[in-house]
Amino acid sequence: MSNLTVRNGRLVLPDGVRTGSITVTDGRISAIGGHAPVTGRVVEAGGAYVLPGLIDSHVHFRTPGLTGKEEWLTGSMAAAAGGVTTVADMPNTVPPLFTPEDAYAKAELIEGRSLVDYRFHLGVHPDDPGGLRAFTPREGTTAKVFLCGHHTAPHVMRNAERLRETFAIAREVGLRLVVHAEDSGVFALLDAWRGQPVSYREYEPARPRSGAIVAVARLIELCQEFGTQVHVLHVSTAEEADLLAAAGSAGLPVSFEVTGHHLSFEDRDVDRLGARIRLSPAIRGAGDRERLWKAVTSGEAATLGSDHAPHAQADKLLPAAEAPPGLPGTQELVHSVWTGLRRRDPEGSPDDHARLIARVLADGPARLLGLTARKGRLEVGLDGDLVLFDPDENWTLDRTAVATKVGWSAYEGWTFTGRVRTTIRRGEISYDRGVFGTPSGQWLEGAPHEFPGRGNGAASGFQRLDQPE
Ligand SMILES: [Zn+2]
């Protein structure tokens, strides 16, 4: 079972890129190098990169209760087509994941329907953060706090006392908080003054940077006071990136995520793409996008996530004030980021870019989720999760290639550079050039108390790109 050898790949290893073979025995990496013994099925890489299986630590696969928007199976197909072998799913489902029983019920629904391995981010009840004490690391080691809500995220923590309690409890039980950091009070104030946005162009001014910056500043203060581990999701502005980088370098246990769409789009794209890039947090301007790229290439950002949050096209076409924020993105994530890296720095070393992808899309998320004993690196003994990535293929995304249930993408018509050819999860092929494997993904055990590094790439074994080798 699950024996396989990949030959002739450019192996993206923790200490550099080397050409050679990699062997998987019983689902685990058993040999790496030029003379790795051949066992089981042989896959010819033909000089493609072999990356560690990618980990998308921010998806909404809509199970349970919102399966009109996405099925776990189709979400996991989109992920596999994007080189992803593990996801961490968000708790804002119907019902939400507020108890250990909710986690087991959710796992039962997913069993036999997933092309990827998975973990769950636990939900924090806004009126009763004490519910977090009931969880063990089996169910989750990260808990999601929404400081701002929207159509599919109604459980918002608005009470400052409850938020302090959440920080205290998370510290006490060893949970890391993953936070949607926008201040709902700021937005409510603006809406009451100016009214709801009636066009997509008015959406960003109604959900401005001030809401995000205020929330991040408060999280940093709480982090100082309680010492709780905090990972800020989908950072969208230059100011947030500056504050979080500064807090990290001051020694606070904070880290942050950047999404593929905040790297790919900017405010002027709103006229063309409208509802498709109505997102929460909103898409910002060119200067913010530039700062986010710097956060990724310099090693300040610990993880990249897709925030894969699909909605049916009919929902997205509702009037601007009613259209729900979110887009599908797990399939597009590595493709958009690789394309961005190569276009922005065409003279840059592709090997360095491949190592950067391995850091922010495999090693960093593995640390975030407490999975480093099994995932995140090409290393003997770890799970045989591999991605064959052709760095030079140019291809255009059209609707027929979109795997998510909703069948649309904000990237339709984009010509990408680089393409996932084959995705291998624990030695099984889960995706190969448009063909999907068996949905035998597993609910993973996580270890608590791992820290993703304060944006310091060197700590994870991967050099920062801005540091000399
Ligand atoms: Zn999200």
Structural description of this entry:
Mean pLDDT is 92; it is low at 451-469. The chain has two domains: 4-50 and 382-393 and 409-436, Urease, subunit C, domain 1; 51-372, Metal-dependent hydrolases (TIM Barrel, Alpha-Beta Barrel), CATH 3.20.20.140. It is globular. The two termini are 40 Å apart. It is α/β, with parallel strands linked by helices. The strands form three sheets. Strands 1, 2, 3, 4, 5, 15, 16, 17 and 18 form a nine-stranded mixed sheet that branches. It has a six-stranded parallel sheet with strand order 9-10-11-12-13-14. 29% of the residues lie in helices and 22% in strands.
Task: Provide mean pLDDT, rounded.
Answer: 92
Overall structural domain count? 2
The fraction of residues in strands falls at 15-25%
Number of helices: 13
Primary descriptors:
13 helices; Urease, subunit C, domain 1; disordered C terminus; six-stranded parallel beta sheet; single chain; nine-stranded mixed beta sheet; 469 residues; binds zinc ion; globular; alpha/beta; TIM Barrel; 2 domains; 29% helix
